[in-house]
Design goal:
By secondary structure, the protein is α/β, with parallel strands linked by helices. The chain has helices at 3-10, 14-28, 72-84, 104-117, 132-141, 154-157, 166-178, 195-206, 236-249, 266-275, 294-304, and strands at residues 33-43, 89-94, 122-126, 145-147, 182-184, 187-189, 214-219, 254-257, 279-281, 307-308. The protein has a single domain, classed as Aldolase class I (TIM Barrel, Alpha-Beta Barrel). It is built from eleven helices and ten strands.
């Protein structure tokens, strides 16, 4: 969808917008299911990047210290716990600028991915920038989806990160899709962006070919010591609007209610589910911030009559649409 179309959606009266998004959701996701994902930071802190929202940057003084890559046995223990607790996707994140083929740490990650994939869950990784070779090897090791958020609009991106460009993000996502992995990419609300920045972010995601398989909608959790520590929270209705527009613009994606959910009431989360969210990070912690406890999540889903979605280990990246002009049919 194009910016003007998305802006018209955004400007609709609130109830009109969520009624439209609900219809799209029911047409594409008729089952009352929510994907439960567990996110584990397998290498925390000490990152060379300067993302102004991130506690893991070595450039800022935060409570998050630099740690080594977790031992494989510890990661496997956490993955098995996630499986036993009902998660269907296990996402492993590492605070690196990127990974390179032939390095010890990349070989270690590939070995970990192969073992986690044998548990039967979908496997997601977020390791920073990827080249073509690295993307293909992750796919072969068993990664089903790769997370690499574009965060905001291209125009605003340079205001929050200087150590890489928006185009760098797009290049990695292209390599992910070319390797046959699904793209998990979304944005962060509360980075000092305008409404237009948020809409442009969704415009770009909706015009990926193929569209992303997952779209996380994050609300900034301000971290003391980072440049955005004093940022104001995001209005609740803004979050719901972005969930609704993401559902309409990217109808077949899992729209994930991500960071910031700990600060949301059950009623607000319910409104987000109604507007089109059908995926959550599940467990007590995200990469460096808190998350609602697992039992509280299960209790809420039970109240709403929602079931955990089954894993789809065989998934490939969605097929690209053929946008070439077609010859007119003969009479």
């Amino acid at each position: 969808m194009q910016f003007d179309e998305l802006k018209k959606l955004y400007d609709l009266p609130f109830f009109d917008l969520i009624q439209r998004s609900r219809k799209v959701h029911e047409a594409n996701w008729p089952e009352n299911e929510v994907q439960l994902c567990t996110l584990l930071s397998i290498k925390t802190g000490g990152c060379s990047e300067d993302c102004s929202y991130c506690a893991q940057s070595a450039r800022y003084t935060t409570e998050v210290g630099a740690e080594r890559l977790m031992e494989k046995c510890d990661i496997m223990e956490r993955a098995k716990e996630a499986l036993d607790n009902g998660s269907t996707r296990f996402c492993m994140g590492a605070a690196w600028k990127g990974v390179r083929d032939g390095t010890k740490r990349f070989d270690q990650v590939l070995d970990i991915v192969e073992s986690v994939s044998e548990l039967g869950m979908e496997v997601c990784t977020t390791l920073g920038e990827l080249g073509e070779v690295e993307a293909q090897k992750l796919k072969e090791a068993g990664v089903t989806a790769y997370n690499h958020n574009i965060d905001t609009s291209p125009e605003h991106y340079k205001n929050i990160v200087s150590t890489h460009t928006f185009q760098d993000r797009l290049n990695t996502l292209r390599h992910v899709q070319d390797a046959g992995m699904s793209v998990c990419s979304g944005g962060i609300l509360g980075l000092g962006e305008t409404t237009d920045d948020r809409i442009k972010m969704l415009e770009i995601l909706s015009n990926f070919n193929p569209q992303p398989e997952s779209v996380p909608i994050n609300s900034l959790v301000p971290i003391p010591g980072t440049p955005l520590a004093e940022s104001q929270g995001v209005d609740s209705f803004e979050v719901v609007r972005m969930i609704a527009i993401a559902r309409i613009a990217i109808p077949k994606a899992k729209v994930r209610l991500s960071a910031g959910r700990k600060q949301m009431s059950e009623e607000l989360q319910t409104l987000c589910f109604f507007a089109g969210a059908n995926s959550i990070f599940y467990g007590d912690k995200l990469l460096t911030t808190g998350n609602p406890q697992s039992q509280a999540d299960l209790n809420l889903l039970k109240k709403l009559g929602l079931e955990p979605q089954k894993p789809n280990r065989g998934q490939d990246s969605p097929e690209a649409e053929d946008t070439r002009p077609r010859e007119p049919a003969l009479a």
